[in-house]
Amino acid sequence: MKINKQSNWYTILYIVVLVVVVGTALAYTAMSLKDKQQENIANDKMRQILASLHVTAPKDSIAAEFSRYVTRQFIVDSNGTEIEGDAFDVNVAAQSKLPDEQRQLPVYEISMPDGSHKYILPVYGAGLWGPIWGYVALDSDGSTIYGAYFDHQGETPGLGAEIAKPAFSDQFVGKHLFTGYYLIPVAVVKKGQKYNGSEYVDGVSGGTITSKGVSAMLQNCLRPYENFLRTLNNTEEK
Questions:
Q1: What is the DSSP letter of 188?
Q2: 131 strand-pairing partners
Q3: Does residue 36 sit in helix, strand or coil?
Q4: What is the pLDDT along the chain (238 residues), one digit of tens a residue?
Q5: Considering the entire predicted model, what is its pTM?
């Protein structure tokens, strides 16, 4: 029986077969690349964490460098009590939207080559055009900022996107989270302005909303760590 290639049924059948073949090929490709994609995501996260320590690792040794510096990963609650779970797998974006008492708070404990210890805390918030996030590295006193790393999804180049540059993040080095007994995160203010109540850094010129987003992000994400950091800080209420 001769097939009429000009018929509507032939056209429909051809399209269906083509969609099935192409769809199957795409699904197979996606599945085969999934492990590599997850590895790349994990490596990029490790790279960002290391960046808050001022450590730049070659692409092919990021995981090894991460393992060398990060000696322990754990999760605490807002009381400062360690709870079960894998810190690396915590969805910080989702946790940042929960009430403090319901959050899982990841902590990365670091051993530096000089024998000192640091603690890295992740932060997540909203900029002008999309999410912003970062990592804050603290000295063993739980208060002094050793380093910071910030990034964004879609802030404006030359304006809000400048939060990803060292010129912005380096301002945080040496700042303190604790003022006496209480934790008051570093504020981000308009350049040239003064700020009473906590230590502060200059915001990005022309990136007012993004700068405010960073300030709000630090407030929202660091304050729940207060009880945990106080155990490191050894501060007592007066």
A1: E
A2: 126
A3: helix
A4: 556 556 666 677 777 777 777 777 676 666 765 666 788 899 999 999 999 999 998 888 999 999 999 999 999 999 999 999 999 999 999 999 999 999 999 999 999 999 999 999 999 999 999 999 999 999 999 999 999 999 999 888 888 899 999 999 999 999 999 988 889 999 999 887 777 777 999 999 888 999 999 999 999 999 999 999 999 976 544 4
A5: 0.83
